[in-house]
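RETRY 2/3 - previous attempt timed out on the joint model. Re-submitting the same 276-residue input unchanged.
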Amino acid sequence: MRFERLTVEGRVVRYAAAGDVRAQQTLLLIHGFPLGVRMWEPQLARLAPLLDASGVSRWRLLAPSLPGYDGSDGMPQPSMHDYAAHVLGFLDQLDVSRAVVAGLSMGGYIAFALLRQAVQRVTGVILADTRSGVDTEQVRAGRHRMIEIVTNGGSKAAADDLIPKLFGPTTKAARPQVMAEVRQMIEAQSPVAIVDSTRAMLTREDAGPLLPTLNLPALVIVGEEDTMTPPEEAERMASALPRATLVRLPRAGHMSNMEAPEAFNDAVRRFLPGTA
Ligand code: MLT
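RETRY 2/3 succeeded.
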C-alpha cells in the first residue's frame, strides 16, 4: 500500500487515498483497533475504480491513520473526542468540507465522536461491526487485561489475544491468509498506540442518545458471524437511527470488510449515491 503524508497541528499523519482527487464527494474510512489503514485495502483497491466505472458519481476515498498508528505521530493520552478532532483536522488539511464517514468497530466509536463535534460535515455514515453503547463490565475487564498484555508482551501479544476473536468460523476454516494479514497489521503497530486506544475506548461516551438525532443516511453493516459486536447490536443501532439500512453479511465475522469484501463493497456502492 502506498502511504501519503501531511501534517495536522504539527503531527505527521500517514494516510492512503484512492479514487479521483478532483472528486466532489469523499468517503472517509476510519480504521478499527489496533489495525491501521491497511485493513481498508479491499475497499481502497476495489471500491474506488468500480465507483468511477459505474458513472454514477466520482468519489475520493481517504483513509487516515489514527495518531501513533502506521508510523504516524502519536498524541498524548488521546480520547475518542481527540481521535475525531484529529480526523476532522486531517479533512481540513485536504480542503474536504463534507464526507461520508465510515468506521469499523473502534472506527465506529470515532465516527460517533465526530458526529457529536461536526454533524454538519457528514453527508452519510457507515457503521460496520460496531456498537453505540459503552462497555459491559466483562469487556472493561478485558481491556484492562489487554493493557497488561501489551505492556508485557508488545503488539505480538495483542495479536495473539485478538486474532481468535476477530474472525468468524468461515474465515477460520477457509481463509487463513486473511488472518495472517491481520496478524501482520497488528504486529506492525506500536504498543503505545495500542494501549492509548484501549484507554480511549474505556472512557468513551454512550452514543445511544445520539442515534435518534442523526437525521442522515446511515448504513449499518455487520458480519453474521461477528461475536465481538454481534448482529443484535447492529439491529438495535439500525432501529434507533431514523434513516438506516441494515446489511448482514453471511460468512463474515468482526472484520467483515476483509472477510466478505465483495459483499461489503456492494453494500457501500448501493448506499453512496443516496448520500449525495
Ligand atoms: C475494534 O475492532 O476496533 C475493536 O474490536 C473495538 C473494541 O474492542 O471495542
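Residues 32-33, 105-106, 201, 228, 254 surround D-malate (CB under 6 Å). Closing ticket.
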